[in-house]
Amino acid sequence: MPVHALGARAVRRGRPAPAGRRAHRLPGGLSTVHNRTLRTAAAALTAAAALTLTACGGDGGSDGKAKDKADTATAQEQADTAGDSTDATDTTDGGADDKPQDTGDACLPGTVKVEAKAVKSPVNHVLLTATNTGKSPCTAYGFPFLRFDQDQATAGVVEESKPKAGGVKLAPGKAAHAAVIASAADGSAGAGREAGQLSVTLQTPGGDPLPGKAAQPALPGGALHVDDSARTTYWQDTEAAALKW
Q1: How many beta carbons lie within 10 A of that of residue 29, not counting itself?
Q2: Residues 172, 146: contact at Cβ < 8 Å?
Q3: How far apart are CA 23 and CA 17, in angstroms?
Q4: Mean pLDDT of successive 10-residue segments in the chain (245 residues)?
Q5: How far is the C-alpha of 218 from the C-alpha of 135, rounded, in Å?
Q6: Which pLDDT score is estimated for 166?
Q7: How far apart are CA 97 and CA 99, in angstroms?
Q8: What CA–CA distance (Å, rounded) separates 241 from 127?
Q9: Which residue ranges are recorded for the region named Disordered (predicted)?
């Protein structure tokens, strides 16, 4: 065969396929044109699915945000209500604590003169006298609260000395009496100490200390020997009734 004929065939074999003719087959039996068609369809389906998910997600997000806002508002209302209730409770409690004491007809510090007097017997005793210096009758309730020097605790009381009456009623100028048993006569309560100051606080009808400054009567001789057994009696209407304990 002539060389120019081979060259012509070789050229024809190298030409691209004319328009309208089938393209070359790929391994697997699919053509390049068919493969492009499938890719285009798959891309379209993917885009459609993405749009659908976006639309669903947008609706759900909107509903979720609305629900979250509603829940937040409800929680805030409940917190405000609880806070109001707490404030009301605190105010009520504070008012109860600030309620003044009922002093009734008790003898008040400003209308009573308290004195400490030495006695010959019984030994280790001092007599307290509370005189009503006011213009109206008053009552000496319970027993005097006693403190020596800077003691934090008050002295004890002789419970057996409690009178049957609720207190000693004092007309203006009249006095009630209580004994201070400063120390044990037999020394059974220890060595004791010398106290230079005595503070006396009166009681309310309910047995609480009366408000106001405590009386500080001068001690006989300027000092009093006291020990851990120091105690007082209830107020009595006579000196003899107080000193019998």
Answers
A1: 7
A2: no
A3: 7
A4: 39 39 40 43 50 46 47 50 42 44 90 98 97 98 98 96 94 99 93 97 97 97 96 98 96
A5: 25
A6: 87
A7: 6
A8: 11
A9: 1-31, 58-108
Q: Which residue, among 212, 96, 236, 103, has the nearest Cα to 160 in the 3D structure?
A: 236
Q: CA dist 49 to 37, 40, 52, Å?
A: 19, 14, 5
Contacts 24+ apart (CB under 8 A), 203-206: 203/106, 203/141, 203/142, 203/143, 203/144, 203/145, 204/101, 204/102, 204/103, 204/104, 204/106, 204/141, 205/102, 205/103, 205/104, 205/105, 205/106, 205/139, 205/141, 205/166, 205/167, 206/101, 206/102
Whole-number Å distance between alpha carbons of 130 and 242: 12
Q: Which residues pair with 146 in a beta bridge?
A: 200
Residue 60: count other Cβ atoms within 10 Å of its Cβ.
10
What residue spans define the domains of the chain? 32-99, 109-243
Burial class of residue 41 (count of CB atoms within 10 Å of its CB; 0-12, 13-18, 19+): exposed
